[in-house]
Amino acid sequence: MDTSFDERLKALAERAPVDVLHGGRKGVEKESLRVSTDGTLSQRPHPPALGSALTNEYITTDFSEALLEFVTPAFANTWETLRFLCDIHQFTYANLGDELLWASSMPCLIMPDGDIPLARYGDSNVGRMKTVYRRGLGHRYGRAMQTIAGLHFNYSIPESFWPVYQDLEKSKHHADAFRSHAYLGLIRNFRRFGWLVLYLFGASPAVCKSFDAGGGAGLAEFDKETYYEPFATSLRMSDLGYSNKTQASINISLNDLDEYIRGLSAAIDTPEPDYEKFGLLVDGEYQQLSLNKLQIENEYYSSIRPKRVARSGERPTSALCRGGVEYIEIRSLDLGLFDPVGINQNTMRFMEAFLLYCLFCDSPPLDDAGWDEVNANHAGVAKRGRDPALKLRRGGSRVALRDWANEIVRGVQQVADMIDGGSERPDYREAVDAQMLLVNDPEATPSARILEELRERKTGFFRFALQCAEKHKEYFAALAPLGEDRLAMFEKEAAESLLRQRQIEESDEISFADYLANYYAS
């Protein structure tokens, strides 16, 4: 165990209020494919009753017109976040007709790339930019890969914590600079320890053959319709999912906020010869936003991102320059097939305690050797995380996953006890204890349970995921109707979002080319 970790927790226990870790803000962004009753990708447009995908605060789309994205506000309590996410699902299902929400991160029965519909956001410059960006993603990485869905967990440490922590750390920096420095330390440690999230919550050990990648990726055949890896935890987070050689060549430092911003900005400004073949403007239609390594900041894929809420029209890097890191976005969680909304309170509570563990551990800068270890461990656990022969790399040595995981989770238990301090129930400790059981029993992990379900039912991945989607629809149909206030809120937001989209379209006064030029000049 890291000595400084113990020292920090001891100092907090002795000198900070008992509720110093209470009230961190938690929000969720959850993606789900809309599918027909036979499990094929929906070809229908975004349902009008859900409002404008461009401006609705709670219900939008991601890459495809069929890839819904649900966004909760950030709440202090996990039950509030979960309830709001459940309500979004219930409202959406009431307006989907006979369609289903796909239950898994790995996609449904999909068609060739050219038949996967891009998300549409209207005729405004900002709406066109969002669609062109997605067209560029399709060219660069393939549209099928972009139908992979995930769940993003957003977290900000309580504001009242920072002055206390800065005093304990004896830092003389400006408060914003100290907070950003501490968040970046957390982020580096999440990259070091984040393989544990794949092991505990990975739920994509198999994929439908229609994804058309299994044979080329060296996966084994489970049955006539399924590829899989026997010990995989998250194929979504493996080289089968979010990875390509250009992204791998982009080196973004996490050692300093200014270095991080400069690295992202450089990638946006650096030409990429591999992308020139797609062209920029072909027959009057934009194929991508630029010919550079990244079109915009969000194209850079990472399992965790430093974030600040951006103002209207403000770029993410500009927001970070303005005020530093405000919260973090975790992007490595698969959709939980066994949870109707894709996540539960235990997962959120563990993630909160785990992120604080990453904060309190020493976090030296990541050098090239450190990045090699981070990437090797991530890739190994994604594809072989339950393999008893797997060894992880740690400081130049090899260590058993279970040994290192037990050490980490014991530390997370200590953090959970502090979060629970002054509470009536040890909710956080119980959530972490539940994950400790999985550390010592790989067959109890979600990825192992999914493969066991396939074997017991003698079925493939696609049919099992479709059955889960059908059960989830039944679950929401059986719930009591949404409360009048919540229903009215969603209906009002849907209606007003359509009005806001029209207002944006009517207010455009410059060409799309000029709009892009202004965006990149900002």
Descriptive report:
- There is one protein chain.
- The protein has 522 residues and is an alpha+beta fold.
- The protein has one domain: Creatine Kinase, Chain A, domain 2 (2-Layer Sandwich).
- The protein contains 19 helices and 14 strands.
- It has helices spanning 3-15, 78-93, 125-141, 143-146, 161-168, 175-193, 195-201, 245-249, 257-269, 273-276, 316-323, 345-360, 368-384, 401-420, 427-439, 446-457, 461-478, 484-507, 512-521; strands at residues 25-35, 59-61, 67-71, 100-101, 151-156, 206-208, 220-223, 226-228, 281-282, 285-286, 304-307, 327-333, 391-394, 397-400.
- Strands 1, 2, 3, 4, 5, 11 and 12 form a seven-stranded antiparallel β-sheet that branches. Strands 6-8-7 form a three-stranded antiparallel β-sheet, with no helix packed on it.
- β7 (220-223) and β8 (226-228) form a beta hairpin.
- α12 (345-360) packs across α15.
- The N and C termini lie far apart (46 Å).
- The model has no long low-confidence stretch (mean pLDDT 95).
